[in-house]
Amino acid sequence: MIKIIARRLVREECVDEYLRLTGELVAASQAEPGCVTYTLNRCMENPRQFAFIEIWKDQQAIEAHNASEHFTRIVPQLGKLLEIGYPVEHYMEVTP
Amino acid sequence: MIKIIARRLVREECVDEYLRLTGELVAASQAEPGCVTYTLNRCMENPRQFAFIEIWKDQQAIEAHNASEHFTRIVPQLGKLLEIGYPVEHYMEVTP
Question: With an 8 Å Cβ cutoff, are A26 and B96 in contact?
């Protein structure tokens, strides 16, 4: 499994639109067969900051997600609403 | 529920010690009654970077965690191994 953390700072006047568009993206992504977990989360320290926390079955599942209709249509629209799109980070869980 | 993302950049020569100490911290934290999920994750773009991804029942559970024997004993030791301890971020999941 591969986890993704994608932190985003949204422009103040764009937060409502961001929430509307991400609602559709989250629902469609959660329905993908290779998706284990896909959530959008809002920062309590700064309500304009969001983080996608995602878990995917494998690299192939991430590639299918990145090529999906909902991703290629919605993510470019989200990009226009951002003040900062921090680099997307991929993680492997450390087993104790 | 409250999620925590805590990203840490560990000094090159300290990674083995970091993994040893976090193994104990992760196991003890997962056993806390207010803990929903507590994982340490290693960044694929930079193997010296780690992220704790945590889910807690509520704020009271986080306070109990921060006051626990394992937290107050191990976290200061981990601090000495860090190059950068990015600010700990608290999140609420956005429900579509």
Answer: yes
- State pLDDT tens for residues B53-89: 999 999 999 999 999 999 999 999 999 999 999 999 9
pLDDT of residue A96: 63
Render pLDDT for B25-40 as a digit per residue (tens, 0 to 9).
999 999 999 999 999 9
CA–centroid distance for B63 within its chain: 14
Closest-CA distance, A48 to chain B, in angstroms, reads 12
Could A94 and B50 be called an inter-chain contact, meaning their C-beta atoms sit closer than 8 Å?
yes
Which CATH number fits the domain B2-86, given the four candidates 3.30.70.100, 3.40.1790.10, 3.30.460.80, 3.50.50.60?
3.30.70.100
Of the CATH numbers 3.40.120.10, 3.30.710.10, 3.30.70.100, 1.20.1560.10, which one belongs to the domain with range A2-88?
3.30.70.100
Residue of A24, A50, A90 lying closest to B44 (CB–CB): A90
Q: What 3-state DSSP class applies to A77?
A: helix
Amino acid at residue number A16: D
User: pTM of the prediction?
Assistant: 0.96
What's the token pair of residue A15? Answer: 């937060």
Say which residues have a Cβ less than 8 Å from residue B36's Cβ, sequence separation at least 6: B1, B55, B56, B57
**B92 contacts in chain A (CB < 8 Å):** 41-42, 44
